[in-house]
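Q&A FORM
Asked by: J.P.
Topic: structure of phosphomannomutase

PROVIDED:
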Amino acid sequence: MTETTPTKSSSNKVKGGPRFSSNQRDIVLSALACIGMVFGAFYWIQHFEEPRALKQRIDTVTANIADHQRGIVRDVITQLGERVTEQTTNAELTNALSQGNISADNLFTQSLKRAFPEALDTKIIYIGRQGIADERSDTLRLRNNIEIDMLRKSIENNALVIEAYQHDRQWLISFVKTAGKHGAVYVTFNAQYFEKMLNSLAGNTVSIELIQTYKSRRDVVIKPPIINYPDAMQSRGLSVPGWTLQVYPQEITVQSLSSDSTLLWLICVLCVALIAGSHAIFFVRSYQIPPPPKRATTNSKGTAAPQAEETPSLEQALAKKLAANRQSSLSKRDNFPAPDSAPPLAELSTGEATHKKKANATRIAANCFRAYDIRGIADTELNDNTCFAIGRAIGSEALDRGQSKLLLGRDSRLSSPRIHQALLKGLLSTGIDVTDIGIIATPMLHFACHNLNVGNAIMITGSHNPSHYNGMKISLEFATLSAKDIQALKYRIETQEFESGQGNLDTDSIEQRYIDRVTGDVVIAQTLKVVIDAGNGATSNIAPTLFEELGCEVIPLFCELDGNFPNHAPDPTIESNLSALKAAVAENQADIGIAFDGDGDRLAIVTAEGRCPPADQLLMVLASDMVARNPGAEILFDVKCSRLLSELIVEAGGRPTMWKCGHSYMKQKMADTGALLGGEFSGHIFYKERWYGFDDGMYTAARLLEILTLSGTTMDEAINSQRKLVSSPEILIPVADERKFALVETFAENQKFTDAALINIDGLRIEFRHGWGLIRASNTGPAISMRFEADSEASLTRIQNDFKDLLLRIDPTLVDSL
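REPLIED BY: S.T.
REPLY: Here is the structure written out as tokens.
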């Protein structure tokens, strides 16, 4: 073999280190130049472009909020002015003034006080012959020269006069209007009334000042405790001469509008990595082009390919799915059933001791342990032994989590006292302490958890189900149990994994604290006539009192506790159950009707014109207000809701998020995402802004009335302003519990809607260009649930027929149900 001597050109080493070729040097310089440009662009975006864009976003959002606030304040002032003017047009009042028979305690004075319950004071005064207030002994005197000057202006111009002024070191706002030639009406508010209203509207997104200017004098009538970002202030003039609203963005608004530079850094690093990697490849010239894949050869003899297996029919596919589910259940009989991937509540023991316990386990109805709660027929499926065992399981689980106390409430169903006693006996036998809250609504028990700082609670309720049903909604560590957590309780009962001890029992009452909390938060700007239908459920004793204290004129309907629910089923989402409420609203010429379900965590509305908007339309009204005051806010809704809701949230500047049906799933998602508002088509509404994030029908109704009165609109007007699509109600098709999930899975596997988008977070929602359809297994009963929406009746019918055809091919026995 001949030794080859390397030539000079092939040598890659010299004294002093490696020598790069000119091409390699050019590659290195190119890489450095590209990386330098990337970092230069990054620096320019972060230090010049982003601050400019942020300021523009802050100015735009603050301006939008300022316009919104000005409009609402203007409407409130207009409404109050109209109410004052209406009082002065009373012919009997002007006649009494002309005759001089007004006294401080007469009917007119008392009527004026009732007309303005939110005012600091009201008064009727005489106007003497010289055009000034007649200071007789039976006339309330004017406070100062400003009130005298306001009277003079009203007499001269025969107009309503509004001014702000200080008295006894506090700011007051008065409305003055003459009542004929012989008297005038004064209505005075504490400026804190308007301040509370403004703060309620603004939330924590902005701070607001009310400025009054007179000649060269400038007074701050309402001043926030902290003013941030004065350079971004937006000023808006009001309808009252000299009044100006100044709006400043708060820190939370600026943070929500600020861009997270993490993504920008990642892009920068990725660009640098790509530049370095690509140049390195060229530098070392070590890449290789992979060989092309081998082509399949054609049989020269022309032999036909083997025939594919015969495709089973859709009925066979469903049968196969059911058989697989049954086999899976059998194979897991000795293990914890796992409907989702989350870990069980506690480590589950196995072995000989566990199997011995199983032999003596309490027989329970497995179908009672559902996705959201425990629910079944009270007298059979939830007998005393089962309820006692459930109490032991919940108490043991709470103790294993390090909890020592639990709250217990119940609704008014006839079976609730019996279940309460058996459940309580089981709880106390584990050693956990129990505080009995009594008969209350479910959201009041959630409120009690926060008020008493006890995060563990059981609510005995059948919710909206008929009177012979009952159940339990369970919370541990301020989180509502669902799905696997509830199955873990069932497993604990089957394996007899119970703690033993002797707990203590005490009682408490939460009603007045709940009322005080709501009335201290919600501002209803005008007196509304409201019909409340409690459906003889758990809100019967509390809802009328709450809305009376909020300043409403309440007409109670079926507000007597009666576990038989003699007037209608406790489910307000079924429109036939609202017929009596519709009639009462029309008969009493009420502004609105409000219905609650059996345990008070859901609501339905009847408008003054007798309409019953579905919950997703109601959520549009609430979401519009929420996003207007909290730009960028995330709003949750379930898969049954209209696509118009998502579009409205986006147009308003919010972030829509579709999620699973079920109050427990929604509450968990609210906590995970920090969303300020959530809602389900079933009527569950969840408020996190100014509230706690759980579903509360009474609080939601109060917030709705606040929105309507502060914006000066009615529920009918709010609905009329929304876009409309053609939709179906929720359609429930009876299907046995053991078959419903397999049926939906088979539908999803065999659908051929190639022109649609598929959403499978809960069942299957199929989004077409002109509408959508939904099929899912109900988590509360033996049924599958369907709903449809489209741009037209023709599109709606087409989508429904497509779903119906596929369902009948899968299971022809459904023909009588479809």
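FOLLOW-UP: The mean pLDDT is 85.
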